[in-house]
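User: Quick sanity check before I run a bigger batch. Here is a single chain. Can you write out its predicted 3D structure?
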Amino acid sequence: MGCCQSCFRTGTHPEKNHEGHQKNPAFSRLHPSSAAADAQGGGGIGAVPPFSEFSLSDLKSATNSFSSDFIVSEAGERAPNLVYKGVLHNGRSIAVKKFTKMAWPDPKQFAEEAWGVGKLRHRRLANLIGYCCDGDERLLVAEYMPNDTLAKHLFHWENQALGWSMRLRVAFYIAEALQYGSSEGRPLYHDLNAYRVLFDEDGDPRLSCFGLMKNSRDGKSYSTNLAYTPPEYLRNGRVTPESVIFSFGNVLLDLLSGKHIPPTHALDMIRSKNMILLTDSHLEGNFLTEESIVLVNLASRCLQYEPRERPNLKNVVDTLVPLQTKPEVASHVMLGIAKHEQAPPTPQRHLSPMGEACSRMDLTAIHQILVMTHYRDDEGTNELSFQEWTQQMRDTLEARKRGDFAFRDKDFKAAIDCYTQFIDVGTMDSPTVYARRSLCYLLCDQPDAALRDAMTAQCVYPEWPTAFYMQAVALAKLEMPKDAADMLNEAAGLEEKRQRGGRGA
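Assistant: Done. Predicted structure follows.
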């Protein structure tokens, strides 16, 4: 299916005549296989890859040599162990935790710890998928969670406060994750706090796997929130399963109050029955008092000074189960984010990183790939006279340059404006600019305009895979999954043709 057919079905038209289109054979739609790794049942972890060792070069490539632009640690470059977002060569988004130099001097000890955590697979975890030991480098690789941390949604929200039902769901899901770790022989969780709770692409809360592994081989476990660490850790520096319960009690306080409250202060408020001050005012009374009392009482039990007086994880989970009264409401609705898009069916052909990203509807990965590709695919698509170069090119390229800066910095509305200036001048036809503006439109929720630009990119460069890939994503956004799958397959076929000796990538 060429772009003429797409244009006819959507009622949109590119800005130039259709040329050079080819029809592909009929595409047999495939259903992506589900992962069998989640022994606990239910969805949410997708096809989590098996745990493996990564090369340092792979992780450098994924993170642009550990660029500061890729740091996603809440404390930025001040974090004790930096976490980077990255994209692997196959398009998979990852989180990479980079330990301080020589935090684990013995590579064997680090690898053994990593493999122990890497065996775990659960829908409530942001699972560990690999590690790297190379010279002084010690790195962990995990699934990337794109919708921020609990700390961001509780303490630094911009649009809406976290609702009561989601707070109850967070408490329950994290308790389930801790219980799973305990049942699999990993009962210790280091430095449990609101920054360790992450939200996946569907808005479901997950517990970071990084906390299942110590921050260093010497047993130092609490790198943040020292005022809220278990009292026994302050006495002897040891973490026990009861210490984890104490830290979980602190998370419950965060969920109740929407702010950091020292445990001793919170317990004083509970004893004096001053629970109104303990409850987040941003909830504006939108919660059941009976449920809040259950949560307050559970937090109080978890925060007992003597470890033996705290509940075990089974008791915690059993207490939270009856509070899950809205299981039919999706997490993305509770969180107030857009629904995770249904990706086009996986084509029969082998996919490049760009193809993988488009098949998953991972707009962030597509953006990074387009940034890294720059304009090398535009070579030879324009031939300009000397007069055109001297009179118009400077202003034209300046508009494109401003667009490129905005595109790189993810200011997509500004990028649209600048690229439109470049296109309107009409001196150059750049398929890359059309592809970039297409992605900007997708990120601004304008799939019709995105499809139009992707089709125009194909008209400028008829056998350019990226143009077809961008059409596939736009068609999927327009809820045309069959057309999206056909276009994805056509793009993959063009890439195979390139590899057999066509125009270089």
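The first helix runs from residue 3 to 10.

User: Great, the batch can go ahead then.
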